[in-house]
Amino acid sequence: MRLAVLSDVHGNAFALEAVLADLHAAAPDLTVNLGDTVWGGANPALAWALQQEFVPPTVRGNTDELVAGRWPERDPEQAAWVRAQLPADVPERLGALPTTAQVGDGEVLLAHGHPQDPWRALLFEGAPEAPACGPARRCWRNWPAGRPCAWCWWATPTARRWWPKGA
User: Cα separation of 59 and 82, whole Å?
Assistant: First the structure.
């Protein structure tokens, strides 16, 4: 299966349009969205509309929680501005998204950050060792070895494609 992962659009509709064009050309079997959909200033309304049409959010990101009102003490002015740009139902829809999802017949686990909390970093959590070793294995200790995990921690907006060369 050819899997494309979209993440951290942060309301940047202009960059999202370029990413969507690339995804269209690549024609993956499945595209998922790891959240942080609209928090930002570029064009949250258009970014939301494009994501709804082409790549609806699959899991909730940390800034989706801000839009949903889960952390009212964190940047209330920005939260109010973003909400004012969006259809009235968006905050509730974002807040209802799960923090994890499985795709590919359960072979791929999706999360915005740590599977239990999108505000927690998965790889760098309290460990002095290299990011790709110990901490990730501890976070995912119940996830079967050898199965892929997709999470985000990179800059906005991004799309990553996972599939074998030539597939």
Answer: 19
Distance, CA of 159 to chain centre: 10
Cβ–Cβ < 8 Å for 95, 64: yes
Cα–Cα distance, 115 to 64 (Å, whole number) = 15
Rounded Cα distance between 167 and 150, Å, is 19
Could you tell me the pTM of the whole model?
A: 0.76
**For residue range 63-121, what is the model confidence (pLDDT) as tens digits?**
999 999 999 999 999 999 999 999 999 999 999 999 999 998 888 889 898 888 888 87
Give me the sign of the Cα torsion angle 126, 127, 128, 130.
negative
Domains of the chain by start residue, with CATH: 3-162 (3.60.21.10)
**Cβ atoms of 43 and 161 closer than 8 Å:** no
**Angle value at C-alpha 40, between 148 and 90, nearest 5 degrees:** 75
Distance in angstroms (rounded) separating the CA atoms of residues 66 and 54: 23
Question: What's the rounded Cα separation, in Å, for the pair 27 and 12?
Answer: 22
Cβ atoms within 10 Å, residue 100: 17
